[in-house]
Amino acid sequence: MAIAIDDQAELYNQSREIAFQAKAQALELSLALKKLQQAQAQLIQTEKMSSLGQLVAGIAHEINNPINFISANVPYASQYTQDLLSLIQLYQQIYPQPPTVIQEQIEAIDFDFIIADLPKIFNSMKVGADRICTIVSSLRNFSRLNESGVKSVDLHEGIESTLMILQNQLKEKPEAKAIQIIKNYDCLPKVECYVSHINQVLMNIISNAVDALAEKRGRKLKSSGINQNSDIQENLPRITISTKVISSEQVAVVIADNGIGMTEQVRHKIFDPFFTTKSVGSGTGLGLSISYQIIVEKHQGKLDCTSMPGQGTEFLI
Ligand SMILES: Nc1ncnc2c1ncn2[C@@H]1O[C@H](COP(=O)(O)OP(=O)(O)OP(=O)(O)O)[C@@H](O)[C@H]1O
Ligand SMILES: [Mg+2]
User: Fold this and answer.
1) Terminal CA-to-CA distance of the chain, rounded, Å?
2) 295 and 165 in one domain?
3) What domain range is 178 assigned to?
4) For ligand 1, which residues put their CB under 6 angstroms from it?
5) Predicted confidence (pLDDT) per residue in 175-225, tens digit
6) Per-residue pLDDT tens over the stretch 95-127
7) Strands across the sheet with 250-257, in order?
8) Atom of ligand 1 minimally distant from the CA of 209
9) Which residues, chain by chain, have CB under 5 Å from ion ligand 2?
């Protein structure tokens, strides 16, 4: 009888031990799964961003050469034409009565108009070429493919080039008002960081803000047709980007939107890999989880979010 009780106790202890081990293994497994998901998320996002970076760098490179020809030649073309026009004017002074054919041709081509208009045309060609040069330099700055490792950089440059790349999504469309960008830039020192990664974070957060504004517009249209209050300044779609020096060791970048906002439950999950509220195909749910890794793990920084449903969202880097 005594042996049977001992056996029972032994059995009980054994099964407790087994249950304990199983629990520990389950915990280990779930941790491993989480790590695996994070690694997978990082791989997908890195692949996505590096293809974007390569595409952007490729386009910038291809445009760079031809635009350089144009920029370099416009001033000469302008000067030569000016010289030729002056020469014609000189002829006109010295031979005020040209033969009829020439007189007719002067009238046919509206010579006086050409003289007035040509400098303006050259001027706008120069403005256009300069603008393309700025765009190309922004694109190159964004991709920074040839720069790995830590660099001292002007964060405002990163913000500007990200805005430049997203410009098409910010401007006015037939169905949507332009998104206003309000900048409150402090005088920031150069910041040591992994540039292309920081640009990636800016891109993720600003594109989320653009999506949140589009989502708000969509809901408004659904709920009230054309919204009568939509023209009030307060309601216009807006992204505010502020930078600030916090201490000799810290700077902050705050990106706020007056978009759809999020509930407390959503806000708790935004940094989880693959968490998305967007439809299949439009969101992978990786942007913020990668941004979190970049800011918190890679740069020992902070990434915080505050949000109010229907009011907007603010990200503090
Ligand atoms: N500015 C914002 N306003 C409202 N909700 C936001 C904002 N930023 C992020 N979110 C919420 O956080 C979720 C996760 O964002 P995250 O950038 O990680 O993924 P995603 O934008 O859905 O997909 P993608 O991988 O393409 O970035 C979003 O689906 C959205 O619900
Ligand atoms: Mg996103």
Assistant:
1) 70
2) yes
3) 147-316
4) 204, 208-209, 212, 257, 259-262, 266, 270, 275-278, 283-289, 313
5) 889 999 999 999 999 999 988 889 889 999 999 999 999 999 888 877 765
6) 999 999 999 999 999 999 999 999 899 999 988
7) 180-184, 238-247, 250-257, 312-316, 304-308
8) 1
9) 208, 287
